[in-house]
Amino acid sequence: MCMNSGLLIGFDYDAKRAIVARANCDQWTCKECSARMASRWILRAGMGTRALLGQGDTVDFVTITSHEKLKTFADTERVWRSAWSTLYAALKRKKKALQFFTVPEKHKDGRMHVHSLWNANVSQTWLKNNARKRGLGYQAKVIHVTDASRVASYVGKYVGKDLGADVPKGFRRVRTSQNWIDIPAPNNGLMGLTWEYVTSNGALEIIYLECHAKSIALIDYETGEIWDDIDLGTTVSSQVSKIYKEGRGLS
Q1: Distance between CA atoms of residues 242 and 72, nearest Å
Q2: Could you say which DSSP state residue 148 is in?
Q3: Rg (CA), the chain
Q4: What are residue 66's DSSP bridge partners?
Q5: Residue-level pLDDT at 206
């Protein structure tokens, strides 16, 4: 459970209850969130591959290196950003319905390499020549994927791997084409709730008072039990906390 963020409180006014859960910070530097996000991306990689293979597409796992004269992650990322637009256009000429799932890796020498699943169906020689033409490395590798269950081992080595301190601000750890399949949203009772994000105990006090006034029970999402209290970095007013707890029979 992520402890770096606030609370999500979902109100069901008809049932007179509200579900309380920890929000996720969704930062790759967070141990809990990075593990969760990595698992979801690995799942998406497999789902997309399975869908492409199912419609008769060729899927390849490719590795593209950075130019050997570039020595830092930031420099290789900058060149990749400009090179990708023209390489993408060349791939689109080969495969109009191009789909891709791309993950960067920080190599042991500090430079960025890129790994991708795609249905472009280009040869290793084509990729080497076209990558080099756009300022990337002369080494490239293409592995044909015939079994979607192998994708987890391909992608799992790189998703969530530490990229170090010289990553540009706003850098995206995974990039996909717009039509790469996504994980469907769960169809459960939580979808119909009215959600509020709470980041301080001052805001939590307001929630306590509202729940007391409207006889709404706060339910812990993890345990299913009546919500008792939480420390968000400050102290909830004892008077407000007492009002809520007495109303819920917790004191």
Answers
A1: 56
A2: G
A3: 24
A4: 136
A5: 82
Distances (CA, A) of 130 to 91, 126, 145: 9, 6, 21
pLDDT mean for each 10 residues of the chain (251 residues): 83 90 86 90 95 96 94 90 94 96 90 95 96 94 93 88 74 91 80 85 80 86 74 53 59 52
What's the pLDDT at 230? 53
Q: Are 235 and 229 in contact (CB under 8 A)?
A: no
What Å distances lie between residue 31 and 4, 107, 108, 129, CA to CA? 10, 21, 22, 39
| Predicted pLDDT of residue 21 | 86
Q: For the chain, list the strands marked E by DSSP.
A: 7-12, 17-22, 59-66, 100-106, 112-118, 136-145, 175-176, 194-198, 217-220
Prediction pTM value: 0.80
- All structural domains of the chain, each given as residue ranges with its CATH number in brackets, are 7-25+185-248 (no CATH), 31-172 (3.30.70.1110)
The number of residues making up the chain comes to: 251
As given in the structure block, the two tokens for residue 175 are: 């990039």
Q: Give the DSSP letter string of 106-146.
A: E-TTS-EEEEEEE-----HHHHHHHHHHTTEEEEEEEEEE-
Q: State phi, psi for 76 to the nearest 5 degrees.
A: -70, -35
d(CA 137, CA 119): 21
**Residue written as tokens 């390499």?**
113
Predicted pLDDT of residue 167: 74
Amino acid identity, residue 111? R
